[in-house]
Amino acid sequence: MDHAADAQRTDLMTLTRFVLNEQSKHPEARGDLTILLSHIVLGCKFVCAAVNKAGLAKLIGLAGDTNIQGEEQKKLDVLSNEVFIKALCSSGRANVLVSEENETEIYVETSRRGRFAPINISQYYHFLSRYCVVFDPLDGSSNIDCGVSIGTIFGIYMLKDGKAGVVSDVLRPGKEMVAAGYCLYGSSCMLVLSIGNGVHGFTLDPALGEFILTHPVMRVPRKGKIYSVNEGNAKHWDEPTKKYVEIAKFPTGGSVPKSLRYIGSMVADVHRTLLYGGIFMYPADKKSPNGKLRLLYEVFPMAYLVEQAGGQAFTGKERALDVVPKKIHERSPIFLGSFEDVEEIKSLYHASGLL
Ligand code: AHM
Ligand code: MG
């Protein structure tokens, strides 16, 4: 018997244990991020269970839009949003929240922002709810009815100073995030996370109800063989994007054409890009000069993860994580994935004179 392998199989690294271990490397850490993340994890488990039951719930609800208890059925994205907001508010560690589903930012009530706690003489009181969470509770929800993988995306900032959060605490470049991740509701439920120490993937063990570390230190391949884009918009693209896709399909110099893979669900498309390499893009086009995807809770968290995994994320103008958002629901074009593939699109933009 291989004792080392056996020991590994029985020594389960749960997500909470992993984050605690990592945070213990920072002497100033007080466990607040671990608590905040455990509430995000709770939201993800709930959404995972709801997504798995979605088809069945629909059948039960067929006689009208009510379920067997006679309650009105909530759409899954609305339900997921409520669950995340409630979980984050009750964590006692959150201050400002931004959700794709809410028009304005949410300020967690003072009574739910944790309490003042003494730490030491020089910094006698410390405010517990130092975190701002930006999230898309259920991205790609238009795909639910056909069983395609969907996901939750989140990014975390720490308050700049003081105790009461303001909107400028979230209108900050993505490089200032302290953590980001997504949860993929697919053939298995997987949470991919970075707390600034590389990217690590955890798979939900449904029997244990725990996310277990299954993909430590994820690295995006330096170059990939896949491009991923909604090619139906090609007519409206700018020249560099058109040229990139043309080269991907008709390469010169004996190179092999790239494969096209596009699910139309960002979490699934980015997850594949992280694992297999290549490029995912949602470029600007004449109809949508800023692309479709939202900077704060779609582009930034994914760009953060891709950079942490050794890839790049570019907006067509600059490094995605350098953009300073002016509005919470601002959009941005995005090209992200393997380092060399993103380098190619960057050179095309530089050569085009559009920058
Ligand atoms: P949503 O936030 O309304 O769900 O839209 C975001 C989704 C992403 O998951 C995906 O990358 C993109 O929209 C697909 O858009 P399109 O259908 O235009 O290709
Ligand atoms: Mg979305």
In short:
This protein is α+β, with helices and mostly antiparallel strands.
Descriptive overview:
There is one protein chain. Mean pLDDT is 89; it is low at 59-64. This protein is an alpha+beta fold. The protein has 2 domains: 11-217, Fructose-1,6-Bisphosphatase, subunit A, domain 1 (Fructose-1,6-Bisphosphatase, Chain A, domain 1, 2-Layer Sandwich), CATH 3.30.540.10; 226-352, D-Maltodextrin-Binding Protein, domain 2. The chain has helices at residues 3-10, 15-23, 32-60, 76-90, 239-249, 266-276, 295-308, 339-352, and strands spanning 94-99, 106-107, 116-118, 125-127, 131-139, 150-158, 179-185, 189-194, 199-205, 210-218, 226-228, 259-260, 279-282, 312-314, 334-337. Helix 2 (15-23) runs antiparallel to helix 3 (32-60), helix 3 runs antiparallel to helix 4 and helix 5 (239-249) packs across helix 8. Bound molecules: 2,5-anhydro-1,6-di-O-phosphono-D-mannitol and magnesium ion.
